[in-house]
Design a protein that fits this description.
By secondary structure, this protein is α/β, with parallel strands linked by helices. The chain has 2 domains: 195 residues, Medium-chain alcohol dehydrogenases, catalytic domain (Quinone Oxidoreductase, Chain A, domain 1); 129 residues, NAD(P)-binding Rossmann-like Domain (Rossmann fold, 3-Layer(aba) Sandwich), CATH 3.40.50. The chain is 21% helix and 26% strand. It is built from 9 helices and 17 strands. The strands form 4 sheets. Strands 3, 4, 5, 8, 9, 16 and 17 form a 7-stranded mixed β-sheet that branches. β13, α6 and β14 form a beta-alpha-beta unit. α3 packs across α4. The longest helix is centred in the middle third of the chain and has 13 residues. The protein binds NADP nicotinamide-adenine-dinucleotide phosphate. The site of NADP nicotinamide-adenine-dinucleotide phosphate has 28 residues, from α1, α3 and α4.
Amino acid sequence: MTSIPETMSAFVLTGHGDMDVLVHHTDWPVPKCGTHDVLIKVHACGLNNTDVNTRTGWYSKSVEDGTTGSATDASEDDAAWGGTPLHFPRIQGADVCGTVVQVGKNADQSLLDKRVLVDCWLRDWNDPHNKNKTGYFGSECDGGFADYVAVDYRNVHAVNSELSHAELATFATSWMTAEGMLNRADVGEGDSVLITGASGGVGSALIALAKRRGAKTIAMTSPAKRKQVEALGPDQIIGRDPKALGEQKVTVVADVVAGQIFPSLIDSLERGGRYVASGAIAGPKVDLDIRTLYLHDLTLLGSTVVPLGTFADIVKYIEDQEITPALAATYPLSDLHKAQQAFIDKKHVGNIAVTMD
Ligand SMILES: NC(=O)c1ccc[n+]([C@@H]2O[C@H](COP(=O)([O-])OP(=O)(O)OC[C@H]3O[C@@H](n4cnc5c(N)ncnc54)[C@H](OP(=O)(O)O)[C@@H]3O)[C@@H](O)[C@H]2O)c1
C-alpha cells in the first residue's frame, strides 16, 4: 500500500486577477478520499483556457473583450464558466493523468494502482444526464495542479496506452470539447468543416476528430504556425481570415475564435450549413445579420457540457491509437506561472502540460 503524505505541493487560486493570484504552496493538505472517491497521485496536468479565463474572470457578462490572460474588471458574481461565483481557495487543473493510490469504500476497487484520466465534467450521479447539475473539475472542485487530487470514481477512467503522462494530460478538455462540437453539428462523411484556432488544443483536436469521421477539414491558422498545422493533416489551410475561401463554401464551421471574423465565418456556410461554437477567444460579442441566418436556412449551435459517455469515447480512441496528442511543451508544476504565460502567448501548437514527478 502506497504511503500517502499529509501535505503536498499545490498551486492555489486565491481570487480573480493576474498571475499573482495563483500561489504555490509546498505544504498544502493532501485531499481526503471520500467514500465514492479515489485519490489520484497526479503525474501530469494539461493547461486549458477555462483555468485562465476563470482566473481572470473573463466569463462574466461584464467583460466584452477577447481573452488576454490579464485581470478583467469582472463582477465576481458571474466570473466562473457556469455564471456563478467561484469559491476560494481553489486548485485548478482539469486535465489530469495520474495513478490511483487510494479508493473510497463505495468506489470501484479495481481502479487501485491503475493509470487513469479524469472526465472533467462533474455530474450529479443521482441525475447524471442533467446538464444543469454539472460542475467542472478545477472550478467547482479542486483539480490537478497539485501532487494529489480526490475525485468521484465515476469520473475516473483507466487508460491503457504507451503515451507519456504529459501526452495523456493533453486530451481531456480539448478533445472532449472538440468531439462535443462535432456531435452537436452531426458531422460525418460528406461534410466540409472550417476550423478556427486550428493550432490550439481544441482546433488541433477538431482536425483529427473530423478527419476520423471522414469529413473534409479546412484549418485556419496564423502564417507562423502553418507548417506545424500542416503536419496535423488538414485537407486545406487558410490564414485567420475566412474571406480567403473566396466562393468556396463549407457545410460546417467549428469555431473557438469568434470576434470580428464571425460574419465571414457565417458567410462561408452553404445553404443549410451548421455553425457550432465552443469558444470566443477573439471576442464574445459578434455581428449577426439575421437575414443570412434565415435566408440560408442555417443552424447556430453552442456546445460546452457534453453528454455523458463522450469522455469514454475519447479514451477508446486513445487506446485504439486512432488519435495522437500534440504536446508542445512540459514544465514542472513549480513553473506553472511560466507554463501559463507560454500558453497565453500562443506561440505553440497543440497543448502544454505541467508534470509532478
Ligand atoms: N466550451 C468549452 O467547453 C470549451 C472548452 C475548451 C476551450 N474552450 C474555449 O475555446 C477557445 C479555444 O481553446 P483552446 O484550448 O483550443 O485554445 P488555444 O490552445 O489557446 O488555441 C487558440 C488558438 O486560437 C487562435 N487565436 C488566438 N487568438 C486569436 C485571435 N484573437 N484571433 C484569431 N485566432 C486567435 C490561435 O491560433 P493561430 O495563431 O494559429 O491563429 C490559438 O492557437 C478558448 O476561448 C477556450 O476558452 C471552450
